[in-house]
Amino acid sequence: MKRPFSILLIGFLVAALGAREARAQLTVSELKSYSLEQLMGLEVTSVSRKPEPYAETAAAVSVLTEQDIDEAGSQTLADALRYMPGMEVARVDSRTWAISSRGFNASASNKLLVMIDGRTVYTPLFSGVFWDSQDTFMPDVDRIEVTRGPGSTMWGANAVNGVVAITTKDSRYTQGGLVTITAGSDEPGFASVRYGGQFDSGKYFYRVYVQSSQRNDLPTVTGNAGGDGWSTTQTGFRIDSAMPADEGSLSFSGDYYNGQVGTSPGENAPMSGGNFTLNASRVLSDDLVLSTTSYFDYVSRSVFQQYGETQRTYNVDTQLRYAGWQHHDIIAGMQFRNSSDDTDAGVLTTFSPSKRSINEGSAFVQDEMRWKDGRYGLIVGSKFEYHQFSGFDVEPSIRAAYHAGGSTLWAAVSRAVRTPSRFDEDVVVGVPRFPIIAGNEDFKSEALTAYELGYRAQVTSAFTWDTSLFVNRYDDLRSRERVPGKITSMLENKLNSRSVGVDVTAKWQVCSRWRLQATYTHLAENFSLDPGSTDPTGGYTEYDDPKNMASLQSSLQVTPALQWSFGVRYVSSLPNPAQKAYVTADMKLAYRFRGRWEFDLIGQNLLQKDHTEFGAGNPQAREVPREVYGSVIWQF
Amino acid sequence: MAVLSLRRFFLAWLLGLTLVGAQVGATGTHGLSEQELKAAALCQVVHFVRWPASSFLESSAPLVIGVYGPDPFGGVLDDLVQGENVSGHPIKLVHCFTPEAASNCHAVFISSNDLRTADRLVHELSSRSVLTVTDGQTVESFGAVIAFTVENHRIHIAANLDAARKANLTLSSKLLRLAQVRKDQP
Question: Would you give the distance in Å from CA B109 to the centre of its chain?
Fold first, then answer.
């Protein structure tokens, strides 16, 4: 009944887009022949202001550029994600954020893959991210790409609901010195220094940085001190080869951090970690590029009253890209990773066995095909993974796109899995002989089949529209099965879910000085348990998501030296633990002076004296206060 | 609470999409892009500027055009400057990463990716004989000598006479006729 109507609509849309004429490209000699006067009479007929690779992507991708990050005044990566469509960001306490995409947010949310320069930053202990130890020197972040939806074919297991890829700038673009000092009303402050230079007569560029931050406790809803403050110092470097891009690239970086995390009022626990990362590529011929990412990552920390861990990860990832076959762009790769950990028993939680070494490997292949002068695109690929806990998994995906008239219509079907973490397999919560929750060595991978549809258009030269729709079917989600006659709940895979959602982003360049962006996200989730399941929770520990989120951001260049940006964001209520809806606003005023100086005034959470973002019903829930910061930035 | 109707959801989305899609402007992915136009304009503008005699060691010394920061032209500028010369000075294209390197160029194109760095660079170069060209959204950005903007699909050139004077550069009257002439804010 309804099907012919929808086919008619799609047909009309394709016809409307296809009716736009394609014009022939101007050659270099033609361009050279025009005088300045003639050039000023020519019309720009191609929409991209700067090369916009994302405009044609067959996926729900949004990008935060360095300018976006700077204008929002984000002090941390978690803050930077707040205005992205489809991203749920909830501050649980001073140092914990619950961040997810398209649902399944929890303080230990586990379906988001986060990477910094190709290095995965989630912990294999529970497949989540400790956001307090993922700081990076924000002015040197080049961009943050957020993909909503599965990215498993390229990135592997755990890229289930989304991928956040943070890329830092090549050190050739961060030469010279930069000092920032920030002090705030509720948070004592941050200070950072970076210096970039060259060595070996310009054959290599480098930078080094040190930053230190300190945050106060957030008070609980009952008015007590939360005991969750933290302070860290982090240092790092990056070295980039100056070899020309048509030869390849080489980048080596490392970071180290050391800090204290509050675990209860008056008590602290240490946390430290570091990494070395190597990214290299070699252009073997016009059509063939070989690249590799290798890293070593070390973390040592304790989780309040739960457990302590030391984790070492070694990862090698190699890819070959071949574009010599007409209409095809093929990438194939292999990856190997070893994660080993050593856990300490906590008051409530232990892991059995306490030490483990986990091996994983994968191979993938993907072909991106374009026809009819780039109008039609098809991407077919699959990742084949082996994980020591769950054996083999296959993650295929197929994406189709139609490009015309500066817009793209795309559709995708993909499969993604979340491989078992140490928590799923080995956790023992409570007294070891009579645990309340027990891991299960037969825990299976959780699986997602996602159906997505999206449309992105440059409607006029000043207005862009980007929307995506998805239906996600989850199987084998984690459930807590009561063992008959015992107090133990065993972790099994008897939960299922179907969720549907849509997100819309509209950008409007009102005039040359003023830009507006609005986003809206809607999510509808349905959960069910397999027959025979004895899970009393109905899966509510796995998700706590708002049905609606919306935001509006404005960026205005008041005078050449003064930039004013503000944002308003709305998150609707969370079900369990219950949390009411809230609206709040953030603002930044930046004043540049004599080229080398900048003074910033930043306000966050401005509309209320304080509000909770996660679990207001819980007496331990923290209040996020209104905060005002001042920053001084000096370049030398 | 309304029962979730997947089909209704999808149709509403598709209808909204069609209404938006029908408005999409007649712009193609081919034809002239902004980058190409600005690269061509940069190559032409240098013909309308006179540098002080001390800027060139000899009459056949190269005229150095620097691109500061990530290259926004994707190779187009490299192609356009091949074999070109300005009053006998062959054009040489370099990439600069520091203000010191930029001060050794005759003209520097600053892409406004990182406003803080662009602002600093223009300040550092303001009293040197360097033709600063920006690609800013705001025409009066930073006090550069020349600024390119695209409005209504056409390129606009703004020339800042005070900045040119400070840099000891002479802008030809032909350029001043074509460009929007600006002065520094008091």
Answer: 6
Whether the CB-CB separation of B79 and A28 falls below 8 Å is answered with yes
A178: domain CATH number is: 2.40.170.20
From A472, A534, A516, select the one nearest A498 (Cα to Cα). A472
Q: Residues of A numbered 524-583 whose beta carbons fall under 8 angstroms of chain B's beta carbons: which are they?
A: 524, 526, 557, 559-560, 563
Our count of domains for chain A comes to 1
Other C-beta atoms lying within 10 Å of the C-beta of residue A155: 23
- Cβ atoms B43, B81 nearer than 8 A: yes
Domain that holds residue A62: 5-635
CB B106 within 8 A of CB B94: no
pLDDT tens for A271-310 read 899 999 999 999 999 999 999 999 999 999 876 666 788 9
Cα(A597)–Cα(A585) distance, rounded to whole angstroms? 27
Residue by residue, DSSP assigns A446-476 as EEEEEEEEEEEEEEETTEEEEEEEEEEEEEE
| DSSP secondary structure string for all residues of A568-606 | EEEE--BTTTTB--EEEEEEEEEEEETTTEEEEEEEEST
Which has the minimum average pLDDT: A2-6, A153-157, B58-62? Answer: A2-6
Gap from B172 CA to chain A (nearest CA, Å)? 13
Strands (E), chain B: 49-50, 63-68, 85-86, 89-96, 107-110, 131-134, 146-151, 154-160, 170-171, 180-182
A452 contact B CB<8A: no
B78 contacts in A (CB within 8 Å)? none
Q: Do B21 and A596 touch (CB under 8 A)?
A: no
| Six-digit token string for A44 | 């720009």
